[in-house]
Each structure stands twice: as C-alpha cells, then as structure tokens.
Amino acid sequence: MFPSFPVKLPDAAATIALGHEIGRAARAGEVIALVGDLGAGKTTLTQGIMEGLGYKQEVTSPTFSLVQEYLGGRLEVFHFDFYRVEEEHELLDLGWDDYLERGGLVIVEWPSLHPGLLPKKTRWLELRHTGEGRIIDDLRNEGV
Ligand SMILES: Nc1ncnc2c1ncn2[C@@H]1O[C@H](COP(=O)(O)OP(=O)(O)OP(=O)(O)O)[C@@H](O)[C@H]1O
Ligand SMILES: [Mg+2]
Questions:
Q1: 12 lines ligand 1 (CB under 6 A)
Q2: pLDDT means per 10 residues in the chain (144 residues)?
Q3: Probe ligand 1: pick from 15, 37, 44, 65, max atoms within 8 Å of CB?
Q4: Domain boundaries, the chain
Q5: 127 vs 10, 26, 118, CA distance in Å?
Q6: Rounded to the nearest 10 degrees, what angle do helices 42-52 and 12-25 cross at?
Q7: What fold characterizes domain 7-142?
Q8: Whether the CB of 15 sits within 6 Å of ligand 1
Q9: What whole-number distance in Å separates Cα of residue 128 and Cα of residue 26?
Q10: pTM confidence score
C-alpha cells in the first residue's frame, strides 16, 4: 500500500524506508523526478528505492558521470543527476532517449534544471527541509 503524500520523514532512516516502498511498487518504464535543494535527501531516497528493488551494491550521487546504471535488482535503474548538466544536448548525446526506452526505472535528481527532457508520465516528488527532518510531497497535482 502506497502512503498518501505529504509524508513526514523525521530522519534518514525514514527516507530510506519510504524509498523502499517506492522501489517495491516501481514498474518497468517509470520515470521518477526528485526535486529538492542540496542535501534534501534525493540520493538517500534513491538508496531506499534500490533497496526495495533488491539491489545490493552501493548507490551514490552520480557526481563524476551524468548517469549511474544499477543492474541486478528487480528492474534496471538509470540514476541521473542534472546538477552539472548545462545543455540538454549533453544528455541527448549520452543516449537519454534510449535510457527512457530501455524498460527500466529512470530516477533524476535536479530534474527542474532540464524539465523539458522529462516525459509526461514522469512522477514528480519533492523533498523539503523541515527542522531536522524532511517532508516529501507528490507534485503530480500541482501542474509541475
Ligand atoms: N528525512 C531525513 N531527515 C534528516 N536527514 C536526512 C533525511 N533524509 C536524508 N537525510 C540526510 O541528508 C543528507 C543529504 O542527503 P542526500 O545526499 O540524499 O541529499 P541530496 O538531495 O541527494 O543532495 P544533493 O543535491 O547534494 O545531491 C544525508 O546526510 C542524509 O543522511
Ligand atoms: Mg544527491
């Protein structure tokens, strides 16, 4: 059963646990856009999603490459970070369209920097700081 948003995430373990649920429910071909400031918990949520998919290896922000591929879980996952992408064509040259077609799960940190690349079906989630913890909300109904 999927939680109703917004969800309070008092600590990092809560972010992982929610990610785990998202990972368990994820379907082939989905795209998840993770909005949120520096340190909001986007990578942490992705770690939970990968845990929920049964992926056992390390999951980190794709800092030195634009994408990290996680193979071996229930779905193949392509984890993008648009933070250092200046032009859309950098992603298109990398094969963005092919990644969308590969029948895996695409996860994007900093999606708002190049929103035009995200397909209509994209699920937009936003993480926000609140006190020591975070809140996550689903932006689907806000026309983002
Ligand atoms: N719900 C939470 N409450 C408190 N701390 C959290 C929570 N979720 C994650 N954190 C912590 O916040 C820190 C930053 O998390 P993370 O690296 O996932 O952020 P990010 O959004 O990916 O940042 P960046 O924009 O730099 O990629 C980590 O130390 C993580 O453990
Ligand atoms: Mg990150």
A1: yes
A2: 85 98 98 97 98 96 88 98 95 97 97 97 97 94 50
A3: 44
A4: 7-142
A5: 12, 19, 18
A6: 50
A7: Rossmann fold (3.40.50)
A8: yes
A9: 22
A10: 0.96
